[in-house]
Amino acid sequence: MAVERIISSSLNPEIKAVKPEKLRRWLTEIEERWKEIPEFELPQGVLDSLTIICDGNRRAAQEKDLSPYFGHRAGVEVIKGIARASRRWGIKHLTFWTWSTENWKREKEQIKYVMGLVTNILAGPDFKNELIENEVRFVHLGRKNRLPPRVIGVLGDLEKETANFDRYWLNLAMDYGGLDETARATAEISRQVKTGLLTPEEIEKNPSILLGFLDTRGQPTPDLIIRTGTKKGEIPHTSGLMPLQSAYACWDYVPYLFPDLAPNQLLKSIESFVEYERRFGG
Q1: Is-catalytic flag, 55?
Q2: Cβ atoms 188, 210 nearer than 8 A
Q3: Domain 3-34+49-274 has what CATH class?
């Protein structure tokens, strides 16, 4: 999407006042950075599912003396780069948490900008074509009844058009919260118990049944979760991401703001995970 369209799509005077050249240079810089993907091949079955909490978009933009809104646009370029690098390295399931259930508390102009950005990017032919060419299944994680209709429509269309793919999976967590997901899953379990489709005894004997009611059903639980933008001295937190799925996940909190993340930095986290042997209580 052209930089000029990004700027004109917002009503915020601060955004309109920003010179397009400054943003264009930043986006080009990120795009070029993610063209240099290091060679690496994961051992089979070691890292099937990677999840990333995309934190620090607004801070990165402010450091560039740009409107914090543009941090989200820069984050899109990083998501594209990580998706390509992950496929090259052999990671089958990739999840990005981009908008939480708590983010609705933010100012209306920012919400409008982000929702418009998501719609324009996901509805564009480039994004869809890349999914189809690489046989990537797209899945939306989170609530679907609070997002704008256009966003819901675009997410749903991508899910339908890629539903038969199984080579790679790309999950976008949007209007997602771990507590909200658990509540929705619990409500559905209650309905099935009430109608006799499921019994409490079955759940007690096979706890993994719970995973089949979560937004990630049919997929492996995360092996590695990376949170960007963790300041030095800051006490790391999970923000409620996948409380059930992440029970055995490894976490890595990195200091780089999401738009500043580079391929070699991401690979460093992955290599550290590969060297670490999880015992699962054994």
Answers
A1: yes
A2: no
A3: alpha beta
